[in-house]
Amino acid sequence: MLISEKIFHLLVKKGMSQKEFSEQTGISQSTISDWKRKKTNPSADKILKICEVLKVTPYELLAEGKSSGKGKMDYMIALNKDEETLLESFRELESGQRERLMGYLAALRG
């Protein structure tokens, strides 16, 4: 995934428009639009400001997806607020609680 694609995913996740992103980073809207249209990445001198505005580390923005060793691929998807809350809550559960929740989910799915 291109760095610019990750940026656009994060913008969706955070509910931030390209205009707001432009204003907060000082990067012109036309430059941001070019990343999407031409499938290019921001220049290195803009990365730190982008990370600051999107509240991610440079590693999170620049890291390539890699196999987790279980046949699954790590990748980034935009989550809405409810999905984000659900995932964060799930990660805080103890293993027994996770198992019960997964059982309940299986029952809901029928």
UniProtKB/TrEMBL annotation:
<dbReference type="Pfam" id="PF01381">
    <property type="entry name" value="HTH_3"/>
</dbReference>
<dbReference type="InterPro" id="IPR050807">
    <property type="entry name" value="TransReg_Diox_bact_type"/>
</dbReference>
<feature type="domain" description="HTH cro/C1-type">
    <location>
        <begin position="13"/>
        <end position="61"/>
    </location>
</feature>
<dbReference type="InterPro" id="IPR010982">
    <property type="entry name" value="Lambda_DNA-bd_dom_sf"/>
</dbReference>
<protein>
    <submittedName>
        <fullName>Helix-turn-helix transcriptional regulator</fullName>
    </submittedName>
</protein>
<dbReference type="InterPro" id="IPR001387">
    <property type="entry name" value="Cro/C1-type_HTH"/>
</dbReference>
<keyword id="KW-0238">DNA-binding</keyword>
